[in-house]
């Protein structure tokens, strides 16, 4: 019997980087490897979208549109370059208006994309219909994606083969156009038997001519077993990655599945020797980067707390940045209750981030003392209809804390009535910053907010993590900061950096440092940071009179905005931080008199 060829989508350059590095990889380092992959015959490559769009601006100080153009130039005209979109959220964590969703499709077509894989974390047809129409209207192929996972043990009500079959029927009845179908399990928690049954049912609904693709992660240790089940059930293409960004929190490796299919009725459609050469090139290209240890192995806790591989390291990177990595284990444990009470939205962006943010708050501030805005809006209905009804008490707490009523109004309808989500609003942001108004700049402002504006103003920063540089010899070091390497020689109270001498004398104890304000005593009231974060807005000026509970500044913590409030009535005597400062718990922010 002749073996059946199984095609694969190479995810290394998007999901692989997202899963292992939080997408903090510079394009100059990996684009040469893309060229090697094309030479090796890779004809389906995931090239962008999803979290990598924002990460380019947030952490890499690169323009995602420029990267897309370079990708297409390297790949040539025939390779299928696919990006990831999140329905009404497109490539942002927050949902967008109709004009931004249409602009997303137009720009991704303009910048070389062939196919957009499009999913909604709640599997709500209302959240996919318009974006699918825009993708097709722009001349792109639309891959309809059903978001999958397994519920924590003991939980029931969704994420079964029957549930996915019902969702697919709803998508078909909604007349959502699609060229192919994908089942995407971002947490890698699906059970192989459910994967098999799901794809068998899907094939009966979409017919033999519609390609069915399967995507999972090894995060829970069952990814490869699910791939074999998907292939046996009739999937014709699967998502695979390349070492060193394969296995662990990412997709199975091309070579791993190639080996697993040996002697079976199926054969992976590739030149395995050429694949191995590409892997060696990628290992060399990524060798300077710090690869977090949690990215390298499966975690048996994940079926109870389905943290996606693609979000896991992004979150641990932020925990490291804020000195909170010791809280990671507690946050993962806390996530189980958050999932159980949240309505069973699939643990994929942005819902996975909502789960993590709420678990983070429950650990840092006490269970349900602080509702994360995204999680709260989700249980209240502002991101669409959850698969099952969320916990009533959590809904009540969210409504009280956020000052919002539960809603059943479609997301697009809500956003299209919001002037702060309109194209005019983003054009005004650009105008206020003195930036040119182009389609690309408008979309960057919509998807990336103030960080996008800062990038366009040339104020972006590189947040890439490299391996610790080895010590050269006594008192001589190489230090890498924001991607730039410096030769440093220490000599007493002097440091020579790239040949230039600096005084590094340590201040005498008791002398106040200008950069580290000392908390005052007496009648002044000190307002300190309750959590580590980035100062994104200062809402008062020195001399202002404030009242108890008034917002003084905004801190960004784990991609969440947290307001620091006045503890009582008073006058702002001193502002001790500025916009863009990174603060730690207990750092002085304001002095009130």
Describe this structure in words.
There is one protein chain. This protein has 593 residues and is of the alpha/beta class. Among the domains are: 468-505, no CATH class; 525-592, OB fold (Dihydrolipoamide Acetyltransferase, E2P), CATH 2.40.50.100. The protein is built from 19 helices and 21 strands. It has helices at 12-21, 27-39, 51-58, 64-75, 98-110, 129-137, 161-173, 192-206, 223-233, 254-260, 272-286, 309-321, 328-341, 351-365, 373-380, 392-402, 411-416, 423-432, 439-456, and strands spanning 4-10, 44-49, 80-85, 115-119, 141-148, 180-185, 212-215, 237-240, 266-268, 476-481, 484-491, 494-497, 500-503, 525-528, 533-538, 545-546, 551-557, 560-565, 570-575, 582-583, 588-592. Strand 7 (212-215), helix 9 and strand 8 form a beta-alpha-beta unit. Helix 7 packs parallel to helix 8 (192-206). Mean pLDDT is 90; it is low at 470-474 and 506-521.
């Amino acid at each position: 019997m002749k073996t059946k060829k199984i095609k694969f989508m190479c995810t290394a350059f998007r999901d692989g980087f997202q899963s292992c590095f939080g997408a903090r990889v510079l394009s100059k380092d990996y684009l040469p490897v893309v060229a090697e992959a094309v030479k090796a015959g890779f004809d389906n490559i995931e090239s962008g979208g999803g979290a990598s769009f924002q990460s380019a601006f947030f952490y890499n100080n690169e323009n995602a549109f420029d990267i897309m153009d370079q990708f297409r130039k390297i790949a040539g005209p025939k390779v299928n370059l696919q990006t990831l979109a999140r329905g009404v959220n497109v490539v942002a964590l927050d949902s967008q208006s109709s004009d931004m969703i249409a602009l997303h499709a137009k720009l991704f077509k303009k910048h070389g994309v062939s196919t957009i894989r499009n999913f909604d974390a709640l599997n709500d047809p209302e959240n996919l219909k318009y974006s699918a129409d825009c993708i097709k209207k722009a001349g792109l192929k639309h891959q309809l994606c059903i978001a999958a996972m397994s519920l924590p043990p003991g939980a029931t009500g969704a994420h079964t083969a029957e549930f996915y079959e019902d969702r697919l029927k709803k998508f078909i009845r909604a007349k959502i156009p699609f060229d192919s179908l994908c089942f995407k399990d971002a947490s890698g928690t699906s059970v192989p038997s459910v994967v098999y049954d799901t794809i068998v049912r899907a094939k009966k609904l979409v017919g033999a001519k519609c390609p069915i693709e399967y995507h999972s992660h090894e995060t829970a240790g069952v990814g490869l077993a699910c791939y074999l089940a998907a292939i046996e059930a009739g999937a014709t293409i699967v998502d695979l990655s390349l070492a060193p960004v394969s296995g662990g929190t990412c997709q199975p490796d091309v070579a791993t599945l190639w080996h697993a299919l040996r002697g079976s009725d199926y054969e992976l459609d590739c030149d395995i020797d050429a694949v191995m050469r590409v892997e060696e090139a990628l290992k060399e290209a990524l060798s300077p980067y710090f690869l977090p240890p949690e990215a390298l192995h499966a975690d048996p806790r994940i079926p109870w707390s389905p943290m996606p591989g693609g979000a896991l390291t992004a979150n641990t990177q932020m925990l490291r940045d804020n000195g909170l990595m010791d809280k990671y284990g507690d946050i993962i444990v806390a996530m189980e209750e958050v999932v159980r009470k949240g309505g069973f939205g699939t643990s994929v962006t942005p819902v996975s981030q909502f789960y993590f943010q709420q678990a983070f708050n429950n650990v840092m501030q006490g269970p349900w003392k602080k509702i994360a805005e995204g999680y709260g809006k989700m249980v209240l209905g502002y991101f669409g209809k959850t698969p099952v009804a969320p916990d009533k008490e959590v809904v009540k707490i969210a409504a009280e804390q956020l000052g919002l009523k539960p809603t059943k109004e479609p997301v697009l309808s809500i956003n299209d009535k919001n002037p702060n989500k309109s194209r005019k609003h983003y054009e005004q942001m650009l105008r206020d910053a003195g930036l040119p108004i182009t389609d690309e700049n408008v979309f960057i402002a919509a998807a990336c907010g103030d960080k996008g504006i800062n990038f366009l103003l040339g104020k972006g920063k590189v947040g890439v993590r490299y391996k610790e540089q080895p010590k050269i010899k006594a008192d001589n070091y190489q230090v890498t900061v924001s991607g730039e390497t410096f030769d440093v020689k220490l000599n007493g109270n002097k440091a020579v950096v790239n040949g230039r001498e600096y005084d590094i004398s340590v201040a005498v104890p008791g002398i106040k440092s200008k950069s580290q304000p000392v908390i005052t005593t007496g009648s002044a009231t000190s307002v300190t940071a309750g959590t580590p974060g980035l100062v994104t807005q200062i809402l008062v000026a020195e001399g202002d009179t404030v009242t108890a509970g008034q917002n003084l500044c905004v801190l960004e913590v784990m991609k969440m905005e947290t307001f620091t409030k006045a503890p009582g009535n008073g006058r702002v005597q001193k502002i001790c931080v500025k916009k863009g400062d990174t603060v730690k718990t207990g750092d002085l922010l304001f002095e009130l008199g």
